[in-house]
Design brief:
elongated; 8-stranded antiparallel β-sheet; 32% strand; alpha+beta
Length: 237
């Protein structure tokens, strides 16, 4: 049984999901600027103009690379509050939905849905929202609508994870890809025990995470509020 823990990942400043993207991105940017420099020499561009163009290109490429680097950051976080009956934010972002909905994939009944939207500037690591056992993990291929649209939760590429708390309450967390996201990664596996502070998964480049809670759950956040993954308390069961 494989277990991915924040205690193992917290020594890393960057998430491992970014390794290939960052290496490939650096190679592409270096190659682009090298080709630009050689091309200007071949065309006989004046030295001063060539230097200005190359400097501008390198600055722009540097800014783009820093943005991508920032996206893959993985700050170490340990939840210090009471974990009993606590639902912790699975990701950074803003609360975009708090409403009662019909959940038709697993529960087939009414649930309280809390959705958190992540922009490209947010940390995109996803944390386990409750302590307990992983009851179900299911991945769905799909479309790439804008993540804040309601239909994204049922039509986009997504991964559904159901957790059962020690008190026997089922919580559903759904990782949803967005218009820019092209990969949803889920680390937790069915039947394994999980804890708050562990990584549930990762979504690349803009996305959302939906939580489906039992009716009557006391929600402690408001629509529009900013959340910090593995820090903000979303609700009390």
């Amino acid at each position: 049984m494989r277990k991915i823990s924040l205690r193992h990942l917290q020594k890393l400043k960057l998430h491992r999901e970014g390794t290939h993207s960052l290496i490939l991105g650096a190679m592409v940017l270096v190659l682009f600027n090298l080709c630009l420099m050689l091309g200007m020499k071949q065309l006989g561009v004046e030295d001063n103009l060539a230097h200005l163009i190359l400097t501008t290109s390198m600055v722009i490429c540097g800014i783009l690379y820093v943005i991508v680097l920032n996206f893959f950051r993985c700050p170490p976080r340990i939840f210090e509050g009471e974990t009993l009956n606590t639902v912790v934010a699975p990701c950074d972002g803003h609360v975009v939905v708090i409403e009662e909905v019909e959940e038709n994939e697993y529960f087939h009944d009414r649930r309280l849905m809390v959705s958190i939207f992540m922009s490209v500037f947010d940390v995109h690591a996803n944390w386990v929202p409750v302590e307990g056992t992983v009851k179900l993990v299911r991945h769905h291929d799909g479309n790439y609508h804008a993540a804040w649209l309601p239909k994204a939760s049922i039509e986009n590429e997504r991964s559904t994870v159901v957790f059962t708390t020690p008190q026997g309450t089922d919580i559903l967390a759904r990782q949803v890809a967005g218009a820019m996201a092209r990969r949803v990664v889920t680390y937790v596996q069915q039947d394994e025990t999980c804890e708050i502070d562990e990584h549930m998964g990762f979504i690349k480049f803009g996305s959302r995470v939906d939580l489906y809670l039992p009716l009557g759950t006391k929600v402690l956040v408001e629509k529009g509020q900013r959340t910090i993954g593995n820090k903000t308390v979303i609700a009390k069961l």
